[in-house]
């Protein structure tokens, strides 16, 4: 990744000499236009996906401050600086193909940086996805799967989807994530801050550095699943407003209301 950032900075430096930055900023993109709401939802999908995978990496940090600065610096450099420069470069060369941009402007070093960056990013993707799927399967059916097996299968699946043209529908994929993940975050926030489910049990086990046993906490939160499904459906089908916000609000409200009136739901402590 450092090599990729250096190459991007070098390409930007070369283009600055031949282009006016103000013109590049105000240039109308030549690609297919999307609505503001679709753009917000796509960005939300990417950001929330990163939010879910951040704990897999930040758990190696030594303190909360390290987590904060790691996250903040990643957002500032990755989202604003590198992506902002990349947009200007794409405008200057009138293409959104990363390989073309790197190959034409930086030669083999640019192509090498793309390959190494892709390997690094996909390593992290496989790491987070294999952990998430393994934990989900173990939590539901109690069977612990091999991380190596999951990593290989997910790698094959991802490569296959890429060959089939998944990247051509990447914006649609981000929009899909933008209505899929916000309900989950909404349910988590409502459960933790308002319903305070199993708060006493979690406080006690945290002091001991342990997780609650299966008998003290519900195995599957059907109310949460129902709220997430309805929230995602509303976000995907209702055109009024911002889809990601719609899905988050609907799931949060449904989960809160159903949990309050459900006799079997945990009560606020």
UniProtKB/TrEMBL annotation:
<dbReference type="InterPro" id="IPR030191">
    <property type="entry name" value="CodB"/>
</dbReference>
<keyword id="KW-0472">Membrane</keyword>
<feature type="transmembrane region" description="Helical">
    <location>
        <begin position="216"/>
        <end position="236"/>
    </location>
</feature>
<feature type="transmembrane region" description="Helical">
    <location>
        <begin position="173"/>
        <end position="195"/>
    </location>
</feature>
<feature type="transmembrane region" description="Helical">
    <location>
        <begin position="67"/>
        <end position="93"/>
    </location>
</feature>
<dbReference type="GO" id="GO:0005886">
    <property type="term" value="C:plasma membrane"/>
</dbReference>
<feature type="transmembrane region" description="Helical">
    <location>
        <begin position="99"/>
        <end position="119"/>
    </location>
</feature>
<keyword id="KW-1133">Transmembrane helix</keyword>
<dbReference type="InterPro" id="IPR001248">
    <property type="entry name" value="Pur-cyt_permease"/>
</dbReference>
<dbReference type="Pfam" id="PF02133">
    <property type="entry name" value="Transp_cyt_pur"/>
</dbReference>
<feature type="transmembrane region" description="Helical">
    <location>
        <begin position="147"/>
        <end position="167"/>
    </location>
</feature>
<feature type="transmembrane region" description="Helical">
    <location>
        <begin position="242"/>
        <end position="261"/>
    </location>
</feature>
<feature type="transmembrane region" description="Helical">
    <location>
        <begin position="34"/>
        <end position="55"/>
    </location>
</feature>
<dbReference type="GO" id="GO:0015209">
    <property type="term" value="F:cytosine transmembrane transporter activity"/>
</dbReference>
<protein>
    <submittedName>
        <fullName>Permease for cytosine/purines uracil thiamine allantoin</fullName>
    </submittedName>
</protein>
<keyword id="KW-0812">Transmembrane</keyword>
<comment type="similarity">
    <text>Belongs to the purine-cytosine permease (2.A.39) family.</text>
</comment>
């Amino acid at each position: 990744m450092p090599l990729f950032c250096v190459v991007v900075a070098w390409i930007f430096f070369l283009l600055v000499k031949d282009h006016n930055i103000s013109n590049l900023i105000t240039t109308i993109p030549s690609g297919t236009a999307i609505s503001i709401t679709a753009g917000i939802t796509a960005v939300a999908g990417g950001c929330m996906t990163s939010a879910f995978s951040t704990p897999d990496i930040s758990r190696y940090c030594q303190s909360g401050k390290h987590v904060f600065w790691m996250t903040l610096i990643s957002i500032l450099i990755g989202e604003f600086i590198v992506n902002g420069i990349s947009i200007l470069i794409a405008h200057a060369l009138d293409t959104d193909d990363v390989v073309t941009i790197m190959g034409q402007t930086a030669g083999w070093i640019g192509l090498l940086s793309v390959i190494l960056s892709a390997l690094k990013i996909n390593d992290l993707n496989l790491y987070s996805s294999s952990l998430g799927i393994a934990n989900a399967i173990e939590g539901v059916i109690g069977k612990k799967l091999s991380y190596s097996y999951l990593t290989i299968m997910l790698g094959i699946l991802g490569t296959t989807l890429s060959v089939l043209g998944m990247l051509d529908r990447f914006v649609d994929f981000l929009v899909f994530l933008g209505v899929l993940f916000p309900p989950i975050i909404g349910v988590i926030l409502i459960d933790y801050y308002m319903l305070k489910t199993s708060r006493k049990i979690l406080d006690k086990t945290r002091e001991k550095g342990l997780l609650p046993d299966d008998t003290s906490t519900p195995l599957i939160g059907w109310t949460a699943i129902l709220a997430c499904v309805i929230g995602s459906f509303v976000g995907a089908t209702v055109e009024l407003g911002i889809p990601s916000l719609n899905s988050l609000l609907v799931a949060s409200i449904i989960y809160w209301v159903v949990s309050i009136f459900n006799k079997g739901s945990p009560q606020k402590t």
